[in-house]
């Protein structure tokens, strides 16, 4: 069995993903999403930029054939020659007393002084990632390269390096990570060798871009799996299992006081009520409601509903969408302030300020903290007077904060889409999300096809209208 760096990376992120990639029915995989393809392209650009900046004199192996062994032999040939920098090398370890072969493809192998089987030099690996922080899964893979390289060149495992954005170099502490690698390898090969399919556990943040998401989600739904209950983390799930609370119904009927002895009364009550809301398919007032009446309870003559579309790679907020609702005249108008080029961001910002200042007494409803953070960023970037920004942000009302402090919804996620869908609001483009808008905007910049802009505007307007729909419902529910 071949244990690869990609397999280890998948295992560290989700053991079930690595299992399905080896044994799963490929017809049950989702097609790769546009956003994932965009990330892959950006990673290629990042690698190219690192090579150009730091390692322009690299050489690539020239294998005699397509097999991993031939690629590994070609890599070792360059190592024997003492090449300073090897790009896209292959490390293959086959041990006669082991049923497993180990394969790693570090981005770079860098020559350094030191004795090895090649002479008075050796190599250390560099892996390049698109992320901005040295995540544990990156460190495991980097350590895996060092482990293989140490055996192949007859040296202690060399200290591996990682290059993250924006071209920052990080050193991996092998004293800490070699034992973790050994443990991870043992767990991974045991699971794969025995073909032990790991249990489903749905985590929106972690699972969102996985090609197996729909397959795993269908299983979780059929099992009424507790990971579908908001607030059930892996550690809390383990505690619930030990208490015999293995379904949503059992959790809904459980005694919070008994659960509280294990996880604390407040958490226990929260989870029990969340399960109860799901089982009964109804919204529930939270037991601890803030003393002061939320501003959401009131309707105002004019209200603004605000949503942003952003391009993280460019650090660009390219669309500031606002729906103006006049409750006196029963009118609502959508104002999309769209930067058709990245250079238009300042113009869009000024147009947005003009609109919101036109309705200087109107509250601005939004969903999440991102909108306030963006207003502060743009204000600072384009030198808007701080007092003006303070006055503006004081009008902002975060519906997400209101929801999580006042209401328990029968949903699997407290995202705007999940809440609004339960309330009967539906986006005009089903299945689309903010990540797809990022791809559409990227396509617009490349092609000039305005249908991409039309799709973004439609999605953003629906986000604003969904926020309005949620606010109207909250007024009735909390009133």
What key attributes describe this structure?
479 residues; alpha/beta; five-stranded mixed β-sheet; 19 helices; 49% helix; 17% strand
Rounded Rg: 27 Å
* Helix coverage percent: 40-55%
Oligomeric description of these chains: single chain
| Net shape | globular
How far is the N terminus from the C terminus?
Answer: 62 Å
Biggest beta sheet attributes: 5 strands, mixed
* SS class: alpha/beta
Secondary structure tally, helices: 19
**Within the largest sheet, what's the order of strands?**
2-5-6-7-8
How many extended strands?
Answer: 15
- What is the averaged pLDDT score? 93
Tell me the β content.
Answer: 15-25%
Unreliable stretches (pLDDT < 50, length at least 5) are none
What does this protein look like?
The protein is an alpha/beta fold and 479 residues long. Helix content is 49%, strand content 17%. It is built from 19 helices and 15 strands. It has helices at 5-13, 15-23, 34-54, 68-81, 136-152, 174-193, 204-207, 213-223, 234-242, 248-253, 256-263, 265-280, 345-358, 370-381, 386-393, 399-406, 416-422, 434-447, 450-478, and strands spanning 2-4, 85-87, 91-94, 101-104, 108-116, 119-128, 161-164, 168-171, 284-285, 302-311, 316-326, 331-338, 364-366, 396-398, 407-408. Strands 2-5-6-7-8 form a five-stranded mixed β-sheet. Strands 12-11-10-13-14 form a five-stranded mixed β-sheet, sandwiched between helices. Helix 18 packs antiparallel against helix 19 (450-478). The protein starts with a strand and ends with a helix.
Quick take:
This protein is of the alpha/beta class and 479 residues long. The chain contains 19 helices and 15 strands. It is globular.
